Amino acid sequence: MTPTMSDAAPPEAAEAPPEAAKKKEEGSFLAFLLKLFVVVLLFRTLIFTSFMIPSESMMPRLLEGDYLFAAKWPYGYSRASLPLDVDVGAGRLFGGLPARGDVVIFKHPVDRVDYVKRVIGLPGDTVQVIAGQLVLNGKPVPKQKLADFVVPQRPNEGCKAGVQFTDRLADGRFACRYPQYRETLPSGVSYNVLDLGIREQDTTTPVVVPEGRLFLMGDNRDNSMDSRFPAVPGQGVGLVPVDNLAGRASFMFFSTDGTASWVKPWTWFTAARWSRMGRGI
Fold this sequence. Notes:
Layout: H1 11-47, E1 48-52, E2 66-71, E3 103-107, E4 114-121, E5 126-130, E6 133-136, E7 139-140, E8 143-152, E9 166-168, E10 174-184, E11 190-194, E12 207-208, E13 213-217, E14 240-241, E15 245-255, H2 267-270
């Protein structure tokens, strides 16, 4: 039976479905990208953010080349919580103070660069260092000597604390050997610190932490520009505003010793410090 004009589909109608399907596919892909962007933005703003350790200031707990996740919710949300540090004004939502001993990610008070340090003094605390001994509210914080901390040297780098801390391992590699101690805060929180001997920053005047500020220190006490120093870009951080907190360091998801090369893919695996991945902080 020969189809009539009413039975036959117009040529343009026959061509419409592929074009409509293509537009639908493009629209679906764009919608997927938009949803993915929103999910990532919410994740980085409200839940976790990532951070790479760029220096030795938090040894022995954190090494240069460690990558970690920081939880956003413990201290509430402020401008520092936003991925791009957008200026949305002062203050925090659901704000709370950190605990002494927390390792925190924060914005430098002057140039807003990300830093990582340990919380030592809360508002109202008096903090002082006397000959390398931390004194909190007039009482020395117990400090117990431990075995030296030994870390292999990174490629083309010596021991930043000086050649007197250079050691040679049994396999011929060079390492840095640092005096290590265990500090225990009044709350019972304890952590390891490095103390390389008496330095200029090992004796400070008593500092009363004002409201809305924190006294932060690096665990590598003689190689950390922290609250013992005035807030200067690239140097000390001074007394850090609570609103500058971006998150609490939670766990490491990757770590590399610095020997990897982009043009040598196999080194991506040999350089990885597998034993450090997944560690809590």
